[in-house]
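Complex record, two chains
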Amino acid sequence: MTDPILALKDVTVLFGGVRAVSNVNLSLQKGELIGLIGPNGAGKTTIFNLITGSVRPASGEILYKGGPIAGKSPDRLCHLGISRTFQNIRLFPQMSVFENIALGLHSQPGYSVLEAFVRTPRASRAEKAVKNRVDELLAVVSLQPYIHQRAGNLPYGLQRRLELARAMATSPDLLLLDEPAAGMNEDECAELVEMVNRIHMEMRYSIILIEHHMNVVMELCRNSRIYVLNLGEVLACGLPGEIQNDPRVLAAYLGVRKSRNAVQ
Amino acid sequence: MGYINTIIILGGISVVAALGVAILTGYTGLFTFGHSGFMALGAYMAAFSYMQWHIPFGIALLLGGIFAGACSLIIGYPTFRSNLTGDYFAIATYGFAEAIRLILNNLYGVTGGAYGFTGIPSLTNLPITLVVVAIALFGAHRFVTSQYGKNCVAVSQDAVAAQMMGVNILKTKLISLFISAFYAGVAGALFGFYMAYLSPSMFTLSRSSDLLAAVVFGGMQSLIGPVLAAFILVAVPELLRFFTEWRLIVYGALFVITMIFRPQGLLGYTEMNFAFLRNWYQKLLKKTGPEALAGTPREG
């Protein structure tokens, strides 16, 4: 087995006295797509915040491409190739669709502030390259007609897609999707599954997916693993079929009846 | 004619400083009460370097701006490091401006203290002011439409998301603050060379709040709005002189009415650009072209 692109080793996160994440071990191979599920408050998003650097672990190690990344700032990690979407959409509402994506492309402008003032040919070229790349990314999520619209004016489903395109704009190696199907109906879910699959195949990203829509997770992770989290601990890990029949998972999701014919 | 000249020059100086505040407050979302301090730093530095070191007028203006910019980092670095935003940052800048005013007041040897800095030649005239305003506006427009400017807007709208997209928040805010203070410094230098006299009492809180008002009144994320507002806020009190004591009431009423009916400011979120022309052009294409752009959203 090759070195994983991402590995969490015995990671614990404390919020005051609460163990939000407790001794979690998780690993992801390059190009793999794994799922992360669990009841609300299980610590799924905290794990994303850990990986992207906005939360520091109390103990344990996070290895990305073989090197430790705990304590690095989110923008550094973004340049190292980690990108994410948010559970509650966090676009820049007053900026246009174009600008939202362009931001991911040029968070480190390829020219100096002085060059920005006089707009040297180098600065103009950089702007031009950004424009072309934005067009490509918009094509992937089929949002080209909306390029000049304000992001905040887009309908909900399209905002989700825009956020996905924006996450891809930083040309990541590791993509973290936090509930991309939240608030979507069956048709939209099917569309999303198709889109994530296509992105995964074409771009060769490694993806971690948090999702509450079970059919979305089961479909996207049908050949790989799903981690089930409960109260900050990894409860189970395995293929969708194994997870669905794991008694501990059922207990966490549905609860256990206190009679003799308990769910077993 | 001299009277109109004075209004235009003072209006132009106010416009340059307001452009600086527009970059910091309008685009980066950091409210500031410190720009009177940056203006004072620029004014004193430019006047001092011109008189003591005999450097040319143009370079003295730039030096005033750069000095103000450099000093802004003294307050910028610690406050941005500790993530002060909103009211907290505004109060920190207010404290900084007051500190500068008091330091200038007490440095008798260099600044003349409360007696004022006298003997500055009156070099600022109408053409120079207009040229500086034009360059300032052009540069500011270039900056806010550049990738740096976009980063500023992103930080103001959602700092967390911006950081996740790889924007270095600290650096973005410091750049914005530096440029903003640079503008204020140049404006202060122009002011000093126009008044031919400087005193710390010229740079009180009311000057900062006038600039902030120009930006809020003119509109967030807009350059042309604050430019017009800054000019209007200088010109209107003069034009309303025949109202004598009533003019300030009219001035205040204008503010209240604007804020009620246009809370985003006169030209908020209206960039000085020609996007509307492009939109018309696209609509035209849509009518004639085979492929309809911007059709109805495909939502379930």
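Note: DSSP finds ten helices and ten strands in chain A.
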